[in-house]
């Protein structure tokens, strides 16, 4: 089975907590003797995991750079669902989904997954083409959410949106030129929020499969928000209306 490298304390700690059996080996900078590192290593030892202490330069090489916080792990890839039905079948209560149409920056995807986890989203859905996958950078930025939120990549996003509607999900696109503001829309039921890539927004065909479009009002001088910030606002608005 294929393996990937994850790095950073949040990513490795989350994998230890959620799926320790998928960890093949852990690399740690031998110079790290702080309580945070000791606690993580103690948890790994209790689970009988293989731990390799290496110098910082070698860890830089293993992780492909210095942004590893002194910890990395080689793990078996978590099997991601392939179809919408695999995620949504049998779920109880109103659904909350996030659809990302062409987000290519791994930092943005990682942040979106983190927001989705925080707001209790059932899944994040994206096209396979012209979109970033679950890279080590995504896992690090997601702070563990890459292991807890299903990330479903689909060959045909329009078809996936049609399938989602069969579950009674109302699909809402975001556009700065929309007439309706986010707070004016009823988003308390089963909803899927659609956000486009930075700079290009939602593609035409994706837009055509949205049930409505809303905008996040801007009161300052900036014209747009980072996609993960927009995702947080949209997902929170659903949670706010449900309470």
Question: What does this molecule look like?
Answer:
- It is a single chain.
- This protein is an alpha/beta fold.
- It is built from 9 helices and 11 strands.
- A 7-stranded parallel β-sheet has the order 7-6-5-10-8-11-9, sandwiched between helices.
- α2 (35-46) links the parallel β2 and β3 (51-54).
In short:
The protein is elongated. It has helices spanning 9-18, 35-46, 56-63, 84-88, 106-118, 136-142, 157-165, 204-208, 227-242; strands at 3-7, 23-29, 51-54, 71-76, 96-101, 123-127, 151-154, 170-174, 180-181, 191-196, 212-215.
Task: Walk me through the topology.
Elements: E1 3-7, H1 9-18, E2 23-29, H2 35-46, E3 51-54, H3 56-63, E4 71-76, H4 84-88, E5 96-101, H5 106-118, E6 123-127, H6 136-142, E7 151-154, H7 157-165, E8 170-174, E9 180-181, E10 191-196, H8 204-208, E11 212-215, H9 227-242
Parallel strand pairs: 2-3, 5-6, 5-10, 6-7, 8-10, 8-11, 9-11
Antiparallel strand pairs: 1-4, 2-4
Helix pairs in contact: 1-6, 5-6, 5-9
């Amino acid at each position: 089975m294929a393996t990937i490298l994850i790095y950073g304390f949040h990513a490795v700690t989350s994998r230890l907590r959620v799926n320790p059996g998928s960890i093949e080996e852990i690399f740690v900078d031998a110079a790290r003797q702080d309580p945070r590192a000791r606690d993580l290593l103690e948890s790994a030892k209790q689970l009988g995991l293989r731990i390799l202490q290496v110098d910082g330069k070698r860890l830089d090489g293993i992780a492909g750079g210095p942004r590893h916080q002194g910890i990395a792990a080689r793990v078996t890839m978590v099997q991601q669902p392939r179809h919408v039905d695999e995620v949504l079948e049998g779920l109880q209560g109103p659904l909350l989904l996030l659809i990302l149409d062409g987000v290519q920056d791994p930092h943005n995807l990682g942040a979106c997954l983190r927001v989705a986890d925080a707001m209790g989203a059932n899944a994040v859905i994206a096209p396979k083409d012209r979109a970033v996958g679950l890279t080590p950078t995504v896992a690090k930025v997601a702070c563990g959410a890459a292991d807890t939120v299903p990330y479903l990549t689909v060959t045909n996003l329009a078809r996936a949106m049609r399938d989602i509607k069969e579950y009674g999900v109302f699909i809402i696109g975001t556009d700065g030129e929309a007439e309706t503001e986010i707070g004016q829309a009823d988003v308390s039921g089963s909803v899927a929020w659609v956000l486009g890539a930075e700079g290009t927004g939602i593609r035409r065909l994706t837009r055509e499969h949205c049930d409505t479009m809303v905008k996040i009002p801007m009161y300052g001088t900036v014209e747009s928000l980072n996609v993960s910030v927009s995702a947080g606002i949209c997902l929170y608005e659903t949670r706010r209306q449900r309470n």
